[in-house]
Each structure stands twice: as structure tokens, then as C-alpha cells.
Design goal:
By secondary structure, the chain is mainly α. It has 16 helices and four strands. It has a two-stranded antiparallel ribbon with strand order 1-2. The longest helix is centred in the middle third of the chain and has 26 residues, at about 130-155. The radius of gyration is 31 Å and the shape is elongated.
């Protein structure tokens, strides 16, 4: 028996391949694992068994075994088949795409999907230990990035977000097991939800929306984009869009369009300005597009609106 590190032991068994099969060793290990859990209260021992190796390759086999154990991020106890040549395929593209959306899930109030997606991937996908290990590392980095970016866009101070349960240093550390990653994700989602539901935070959101509306109203003549407006109020585009949607029931771009039409109505009814000039002042690049959008929103053309306004007063 060899001791490797503080908590790893390797038992080397010399046997005649013609007299003993690896499955016989497996049965012994299973019985011993059951005995430990029932009578010795040992609940975290992990055993690996595999094909025999030549004496001259013992040290190489031990190194492979230690690397394999490191990659086994899911197993907490039990007996597992060890392959001396585990697959080293990388993380799936779909999982990486999943990770890239985590920031938006936080900002859009859908963070609870993150732990659910982690469970679906790690518990249901058929992955090699190497793939699970690599996925764990990518998910750990992705979770840290998503949380820090969401905090920045939401203007939540990190010293307010992180607590004694998870300090900033603990949170950014690479998780060693799937269970640790899942605990981090569940805690981060709950913490973010609690903080963003705080009345003081809601008041801050209201202030940001007010500044957004003011900016739009004073820049209707210009070509406006989500990125430009979000930059002005120091929020992420996705988070800003969610705030506007919550306040008005409209997407940010639909709100801008409505404000342009309302401004056009005011100018049509209260000035003698040409309809083409009104179109430009309200941010439409040409008369044809303006007329099309105006009719879609009001049911009549700009000219018909002006004529009706003069005859009956203000139209809604």
C-alpha cells in the first residue's frame, strides 16, 4: 500500500491475470465500501479499479489514477471503473453558449434557471470525468463573470453583495466539486434576488428610468440605440430594457417609437411646419417611413391627422 498526499492511499495488487479478473477485485471493493458505510460511518471514500498494468508502468499508472480522481467532480463515494486512457474531449459548445447567457438571466430576473441548467447538464448528460472536470472549471469562471457583470450593471457594490457565507475571495475561487458549484449558484441567485427587491434598490431603478425617459425626449431627432442610452445612465442594455419594460409594458425601442409619434402629433397640431420637417425632427430618416409608421400607430396619415386636428381639436 502506498500513501500519496494526506488523504490518498493506493493499494497495488499483484495477481495472475489467468487466475483473477478485474471484476473479482470490483466485487471485493463493493463489499468493502458497503461495510465502511454501514459499520465504520465512512461516507466519502472513493475507490477506482481498472485493468491491470505491467510492473514497469506502475508510476505512470499512479499519475494517471491521481489525475482521474481529480477529474471526478461528481463522485462523493462509491466504486468506479478507472480507464488508464480517459477521453480528453473538451466542453460542449452548447454548454459554453449556455454559460454566456447567465449574465442576462441574472439581469432579467431569471437567475433561478442557472442551477436548473447546471443540474440538467451535470446529472443528465453522458460525460466522461475529464469532460465534467473541464465543464466544472468553465462553469465556475462563467458564474463568477456573470455575477460580477450583473453587479456592475445593476450598480450593486460587491461588499454589499458578498457575505460571511461566501466572501468575494471564496466565490471567485475555482469550485472543486459539482456540489460546491451548485451551492454557489443557488446562493448567488437568492442573494441577487433579495438585493434587487430591496425598496432602496427599486427607488434607484425608478430614478434611472426617469433619466432614460428624459434623455429619449431630448434626443428624439437623433438615431437612438439601446447601447447609447444604456451608456448614458450607466446600465447594461439588457438591464435597462428590462426596467423600461417593467415600467411601460413596452420594449425600449417601441417606447422610443411611441414617443416619436406623440411628438409628431404635437407638431402637426400646433405648428405650420412641413410634414417632411416634422418627420426629421422626430427621428425619421424620410417622409415615406414616417408616414408608414404614423399610419400604423394611429390609423391615419400625418396629413389626415393635421386636417382632422384643425377641424376638431386635439386627437388621441
Amino acid at each position: 500500500m502506498l500513501k500519496v498526499g494526506s488523504d490518498h492511499f493506493i493499494l497495488l495488487i499483484s495477481y495472475d491475470a489467468g487466475q483473477l479478473h478485474s471484476t473479482d477485485i470490483m466485487r471485493v471493493l463493493l463489499r468493502y465500501s458497503d461495510f465502511e458505510q454501514k459499520h465504520l460511518d465512512i461516507r466519502s471514500a472513493v475507490y477506482y479499479y481498472g485493468k491491470g498494468i505491467d510492473r514497469c508502468n506502475v508510476m505512470a499508472g499512479i499519475r494517471c489514477l491521481m489525475e482521474y480522481e481529480k477529474q471526478n467532480v461528481m463522485a462523493r463515494t462509491g466504486v468506479f471503473l478507472y480507464s488508464a486512457d480517459p477521453k480528453q474531449s473538451g466542453v460542449s459548445k452548447s454548454f459554453l453558449m449556455n454559460i454566456s447567457k447567465w449574465r442576462s438571466l441574472f439581469e432579467n430576473g431569471q437567475g433561478a434557471q442557472i442551477p436548473t441548467r447546471l443540474r440538467q447538464y451535470f446529472e443528465n448528460e453522458k460525460l466522461t470525468p475529464a469532460e465534467k472536470y473541464q465543464s466544472l472549471q468553465e462553469a465556475g469562471k462563467g458564474l463568477t463573470h456573470a455575477v460580477l457583470q450583473a453587479l456592475g450593471s445593476s450598480r450593486i457594490a460587491s461588499d454589499k453583495f458578498f457575505t460571511e457565507l461566501f466572501s468575494l475571495q471564496q466565490f471567485v475561487a475555482t469550485p472543486q466539486t459539482y456540489e460546491e458549484l451548485l451551492r454557489k449558484a443557488e446562493w448567488a441567485v437568492q442573494r441577487y434576488t433579495v438585493l434587487t427587491a430591496d425598496p432602496l434598490f427599486t427607488k434607484k431603478d425608478t430614478d434611472e428610468v426617469g433619466r432614460t425617459f428624459e434623455y429619449i425626449q431630448t434626443h428624439l431627432m437623433q438615431k437612438l440605440s439601446r447601447e447609447e442610452i444604456a451608456s448614458f445612465v450607466h446600465l447594461s442594455p439588457d438591464y435597462l430594457a428590462r426596467l423600461v419594460k417593467k415600467k411601460t409594458g413596452l420594449s425600449l425601442m417601441d417606447y422610443i417609437k411611441c414617443q416619436r409619434i406623440e411628438e409628431a402629433k404635437t407638431l402637426l397640431g400646433s405648428t405650420q411646419m412641413s410634414i417632411s420637417m416634422i418627420a426629421l425632427k422626430c427621428g425619421f430618416s424620410n417622409f415615406s417611413h414616417f408616414s408608414q409608421v404614423f399610419r400604423k400607430e394611429t390609423g391615419i396619415t400625418p396629413f389626415e391627422y393635421r386636417t382632422a386636428y384643425k377641424g376638431k381639436g386635439t386627437l388621441s
